[in-house]
Sequence to fold (164 residues):
Amino acid sequence: MKILDIFQMYDWEINIFIKFFFMLQLTFIGILSLDLLKIEIPLFGPLVCFFYLTFIPGYIILRILRLHNLGMIKSALFAIGLSVSFLMIFGLFINYFYPIFGISEPLSAISLIISINIFIIILFYFSYIRDRKFSNPTYLSTQNLLSPTLLVLYLTLLLTILGA
Fold:
């Protein structure tokens, strides 16, 4: 059985990428909305928000730049670097330009959530326009994921977590 490689999602077919992106975006918005209402989901919320902000802008930028078939490690590192750079530069622009337009607290949670989501949707539109014809998904083989060597590593990780 083959499953799509999540660390190379910029190589997925555009329809699958769109569905995954909007599912993750709605989950991100829902978690942050619940957090603003003082309803917290202990482990799921921070993991989804971390994954969304750390990887998704970078993968969208990789699609805009049409960089494909980089490999799992390079693509993950490029995505993390591009996402962090994007968020830092975007935060700088928000902090500089929002007071000009009369928004007194540009780095408040609501302002950041709305601005980041709108700009990521704009980036996603550009990636769709520029890279909609590319399709060469990379698959992970479940036989490799269930090899004896990896099962020993999984068991070690599980015993470490349970021991703590």
About this structure: The chain has one domain: 2-163. Residues 2-163 form one domain. The mean pLDDT is 82.
